[in-house]
Each structure stands twice: as C-alpha cells, then as structure tokens.
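okkk here we go again. third time trying to get the FM0 bound version out, last two times i messed up the smiles copy paste (missing a bracket lol). double checked this time i swear
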Amino acid sequence: MNNSPITARAHTNIALIKYWGKKDVDLIIPQNSSLSLTLDHFYTDTTVKFDEGLAQDVFTLNGEPAENPKVNHFMDLVRKLAGIQTFARIDSINHVPSAAGLASSASAFAALAAAASKAAGLDLSRKDLSRLARRGSGSASRSIYGGFVEWQQGQDDQTSYAVPVEEHLDWSIGMLVGIVNSGQKKISSRAGMQTVVETSPYYQGWIQSTTEDLKSIKKAIQNRDFQKVGEITESNALKMHALNLSAQPHFNYFEPMSLAIMQEVERIREEEHIPCYYTLDAGPNVKILCMQTDAPAIQRILASKFDQITFEFAKPGEGARFIEA
Ligand SMILES: O=C(O)C[C@@](O)(CF)CCOP(=O)(O)OP(=O)(O)O
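finally!!
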C-alpha cells in the first residue's frame, strides 16, 4: 500500500444498448451485454489516500462530507483484494451539471476503482479494473475505456467485464445532453431494473431483442452507418422503457418535457432532415445522438422550443486515467 494520495479521472458513459437487469445482484452480473459511448464532457475526479490513523473511511463529495454505503462496501472489496485493513480518505468531485440527474455512478465508481486500487498498492489491468468497477455500479465497468465500449455480460465475476469496441474514435459523432430539471423522485436504476426483471411480461423478449440490437449496432458502427446506429439506439431505449411501463407496479421516467423533446427530435429528423436520435436512462433527461457538425443547428432549434433547458454537447471521451490532483 502506498501512503501517497492517488487521483483518477473517469468519464460518464451513455448506453446505446442498455443494461437493464441483473442475473446476480451481489456480483452485478447483467442479464445481457450492453454498449455505450464514453463522453468527454462529464467526468468525476476521485482522490484516495490510505491512512493508518483513520478509524473508518472518510468520504467527501464535491467538497462536502458524504455518506454512501455503496462506497464503504466498495472500499471493503478493495481492502480484501489488496490484503489490507487500513481505512482511507476519499475525495470525489463530480464535473456533471448539478441539476443533471445524469447517472454519475458510472464515472464515480470507475474513478474510485482506479484511484483506490492504485492507492492500495494494486496495479490492475484494465480488464480487472473493469471487473472491480462493475462491483460498484454495472455501468461503471464501461467507463474504464473511452469511445464505444461493450460490457460483455459473462456469467460470473471473472468473465463479466467491458472491452473497447473503438476507443480512439475518428468519427465525429457526439451527444447533446438536455438537462430536464426533474421535480419527481426518480426510482433508482437498481430498484427499477429489479422490478422489471421480476415482473415485466416482456422481459424475455427484451433479452432476445437487445442481444440482436447489440450485434446490429456493432456492425453499423464498423460501417460508419450513423442512421442505423441512431435507429437502433432509439428503438433500444424505448424497449427498455416499455419494460418499466409493463412492470408491476408500473413506473416510468418520462416527464412531459421528455416526451416533448423526443417528439421534437423526430420532427427535426423528418422535417429538417438533420439526422439525430434520442435515448433516455433512469431519469427524464434526453440524450441526442448526432454528428458534431449538426450539433449547433439542432441546439438552435431546441433552444427556440425549450428555452428553459440547456443542451450541452459532448464528444466521445477517454477511458479512466490517473491525473495530478
Ligand atoms: O447505463 C445503462 O446501460 C442503462 C442505465 O443507465 C439505465 F438506463 C442503467 C444503469 O444502471 P447502473 O446505475 O449501472 O445500475 P447498478 O449496476 O445497479 O449500479
């Protein structure tokens, strides 16, 4: 274990093919493989320093003391892996719009996995970092890499990890992220996907369909077929949300503003002939896949319709890495 503080940076990722259900809740083994795009715009910096003088882990988030049982549980995993008992100081800064509601668990646990394992004296491969990050939050397994990333579902702790599909993208694709300030209490991803696995009558159909989508989208990425990538992305997101509508009790993450933006994206595509496609996760925020050159025109149209929402553009981002604090 080295006693110097280690800082890591990891970016958030947005799934084009969704992870939405676990086979094993404790190990976080998913029901299906997923594929995401790591974004440059939103990231987490986490510093970890092990200190024999601490009687427990001390955690701060954005400069404020914080309590998070998932972080404590995760640090226990790191201690076990490194064969140490020492507690640590963990300081995490989320560079994500505060009202975002953007699932920052992906960047947070990927950055924590990198910084904590290194500070504990481990020198993990990116594959083992992805496996470790997965234990914090499934989607974090993908943020170890940049660009397009596939989380191969595997069947156990050894075989479930992410791999880079195309890490250094020479494709000028990107995402506009609309921050819909949500008043409603959202159901966490963890709770939402559990309900769906247990109660949606469509769940087996989802597994079959999303497995097909993954194969098709990888081919479309290889062929630089933006329209196909977009169509699959939009369809896959709606199928995921259909699971929520069909669950018992049913739930959904859409707000009226979400639906209005979704309809406007379809209008821009069909009437303005600007290729753009939406996806949504466990919240009301709409993410719009588009080519970088089209982003300003789309932002202008959206700003004229939704003046109270900011749409921030994100290019493909890099994988988790160590930085000077
Ligand atoms: O990212 C995706 O594939 C789709 C979602 O974002 C939702 F739309 C799921 C993210 O779930 P996560 O927060 O990783 O859950 P955990 O494993 O229970 O911590």
